[in-house]
Amino acid sequence: MTLKLFYGDVKNSDREEIQPPAKEKCGLKNKIQHLKEQQALKLQLLSWCTEASQNDPLAAVRPPTSILDNHGIKMLATLHPNNIRNTSQVVQALGETDEWDDEWSKKILTVIQTYDNKLKGGQKAAATMEKA
What we know:
mainly alpha; about 5% strand
């Protein structure tokens, strides 16, 4: 039996029932990448960023952190793969500019998706081996 709570005096017949606040559903925003996978993705992003900076024609005046700094690497590695499906989500997660979006977001998204696809392929192979 559940108890009901009401606003107003007990003697009043027109009192209003107190409704509990609606619970928020756990959405994709709360999901994060597994810790072991975060570390591997951080290394992948750092490696890519270093290489991209070395190949950048403006490398002399633009450090690797202008492409993607340590905070950005951590942020992207923490996000669940379902939360990064397009370049606008990369830009939004990092709070970057349109110019940065035009030059780097697609390349970074490719690095993330390549890593996630390799990870999914490895998980499928491991599941197949366990069944055998």
